[in-house]
Amino acid sequence: MASKAQPKVKSSQKKTLSFYYGELIKEKRKKKKLTQQQLADQIGKERAYIAKIEQGKTDLQISNFVQIINAFGLSLQIA
Question: Looking at the predicted structure, is the pLDDT value of residue 16 above 60?
């Protein structure tokens, strides 16, 4: 069975995307008047993990992203 090739993403692109998503999450968290600790508590993670996401220093797994958007009262729609 042949596997599908994954598109290659350059390291610099990956860092840029991580930073971009981190900034979006930080902006939304602040609009909701949540601290990093409050958001972390809602999704069962450490505050340091939220800080790393917001700084673009870690890759954001889709499962964690879904938990975060749910904590913001949003939903994910894939068109």
Answer: yes
